[in-house]
Amino acid sequence: MTEGFKPIAITLENCGKTFADGTRALHPLTLEIAASETIVFLGPSGCGKTTTLRIIAGLETPDPGGRVLFDGEDVTALPIERRRVGMVFQSYALFPNMSVAENVGYGLRVRRVAGAEAAGRVAEMLAMMRIEALADRRIDQLSGGQRQRVALARALAVRPRVLLMDEPLTALDAKLRDALRLEIDELLRRLGITAIYVTHDQAEAMALGDRIVVMDHGRVAQVGKPRDIYQRPSTRFVADFIGTMNRINGTVRDGAFVTAAGAIPWREAPPGASEALFRPEDVTLDDTAEAHLRGRLTAAFFLGDRTRLFIDVGMEKPLVTETGARRDFTHDEPIGLRIDPRGLMAL
Amino acid sequence: MKRRGALFWLQLGFTLFVCAFLIVPVFLSMMAGLTVNYLTGIESGLTLRWVGEVWSGYRDTIFLSMGIALACLAGTLVLGIPAAYALAKRPTAMTRAIEELLVMPVAVPGLATALALIVTYGAAGGFRTSWTFILTGHILFTLPFMVRSVLAVLNAIDLNTLEEGAASLGAGFTQRFFHVVLPNCRTGILAGSLMVVTLSMGEFNMTWLLHTPLTKTLPVGLADAYASLRLEVGSAYTLIFFLMIMPLLLALQAMTRHVR
């Protein structure tokens, strides 16, 4: 039931975007997206991720010199209606004057697909998104999650060459978001379609992306697999934007990073590093005399399966770690910490 | 059930009084058109004679008014919907200024607009004596109502995203306009149509200056009848006016409600 999708590779060449009022939404960007790959553009609002998506879609044209290639074919001058893409909008953009089935079949109608074939394809899409029972409903009778499914079915009904999604889950509540995220992931793998996904939610990006493009102020900050981006952020912005990052100031001396709160053994420390970064999961509690760092507890949030601890070590911000220890923590109690040297970074 | 207090009855009484104040003259006027002699009163008997006289003497004004109202509706639809669409599509300082300018013919007294039309086009003989001269005035006057009500609906729906959605599915401009834009602003179109037809049918102010003896509309004929003929004839005229316009308005209103 999922035949007919022919994934394509997409190339962006020097695609920049300057708006009429002179603001630079996007600095020239070059990127290769492989066929069947799921790429996630991630960043805070105004970072240029939606502009990039709209350039790929054909809703914006890049500044002169920029080119968009679909499988090597230059589509820069083609408007969206001639690019054969599927798009899911943040507000879904479903047509209120049509039923669910009419919405899903609209792309087939404008492409003059014969009635019987179109009806079959609509039924197939409704079944794929498990919304057959909603076929005759009006759009204003649907919940947010149902609208999202209709939007996906509608975008996929025309067998697009690439599926573009602009913050598709942002309007939904957390539980539904998780369920649909799983479903979208499963769908993308099954269809093998090239997919481009825009979000400001790093958990969504990590879960869905084969690769993530982290963007900041109209520039690409880093491109890589989710694990690379998390474990080896290339800029301070990426380190802070993805997950939680601890920072501590000090100096490198004799194979250790010496700070006011203690010394962390760090043989591969880059000489001259004045700041060490590490993730909460690389920190363990250590009550013995061998603890690397010592500080005082400023807050402890019991989360059920674990406790999130904030420890003041005399830096600008407290260090963060999580522990599964089955005990109570009291404010201001002294805490010893051990840092896994494999998790240490300097930027 | 709670007993209704004095205030309720007072309010009901007042409401009924106001209704009566408004409806009784209408009713009396309609009755006058059916009375043999108004001065003698209803005892003189009922007759359709006056209605018949109006029908034979002023039939043309009724059809002209309806024709102008429908032509005016067609004109405002053709001009107003694209105008509203253009204004909604790119909200800039200039389009806002245009929107304000469009309302001018409503603010300027009809007599002034009519005079301006006569001063400008009065010399164009064929045009001046044709019913299209009145139509021009009516379109000028009613266009803002169409533009405004369509624009209000277009601004309430997320027009750009809907169009982008349609475009992403392969729809070109014409398809987007007819499949998505028009159907989604039909409540505004119907509300505007109701307004335009009503205003055009009843317009007197401007039409009184624009008309010629051969292009008399219903309201102008009505003024004529009241001014120069028996009161009974004028009243019979009012009666016919009601009978013609009420079904039209009710039908339009029912359509608007049905669509919502």
**Total number of beta strands of chain B:** 0
> Mind summarizing the main beta sheet of chain A?
6 strands, mixed
CATH architectural grouping of chain B? Orthogonal Bundle
- Average pLDDT of chain A works out at 91
CATH class of the largest domain in chain A: Alpha Beta
Calculate the mean pLDDT score of chain B and round it.
Answer: 85
CATH superfamily heading of chain B: MetI-like
* Rg of chain B (C-alpha, Å): 23 Å
Strand content of chain A: 25-35%
Distance between the termini of chain A: 49 Å
Shape of chain A: elongated
Please compute the radius of gyration of chain A using only Cα atoms.
25 Å
The CATH C-level name of chain B is Mainly Alpha
Percent helix range of chain B? over 70%
Task: Describe the structure concisely for a colleague.
The complex is a heterodimer of chains A (347) and B (260). Chain A has 347 residues and is α+β, with helices and mostly antiparallel strands.
Helices and strands in order, then pairings?
The complex is a heterodimer of chains A (347) and B (260).
Chain A: E1 10-18, E2 24-33, E3 38-42, H1 49-57, E4 67-70, E5 73-74, E6 86-88, H2 100-110, H3 115-128, H4 144-157, E7 162-166, H5 174-191, E8 194-199, H6 202-208, E9 211-216, E10 219-224, H7 226-231, H8 236-241, E11 246-249, E12 251-253, E13 256-259, E14 262-265, E15 275-278, E16 283-285, E17 293-302, E18 307-312, E19 319-323, E20 334-339
Parallel strand pairs in A: 3-8, 3-9, 6-7, 7-8
Antiparallel strand pairs in A: 1-2, 1-4, 4-5, 9-10, 11-15, 12-13, 13-14, 16-20, 17-18, 17-20, 18-19
Helix pairs in contact in A: 2-3, 2-4, 3-4
Chain B: H1 6-32, H2 49-89, H3 93-102, H4 104-107, H5 110-121, H6 125-128, H7 131-156, H8 159-168, H9 173-184, H10 186-202, H11 205-210, H12 218-228, H13 231-259
Helix pairs in contact in B: 1-13, 2-7, 2-10, 2-12, 2-13, 7-10, 8-9, 10-13, 12-13
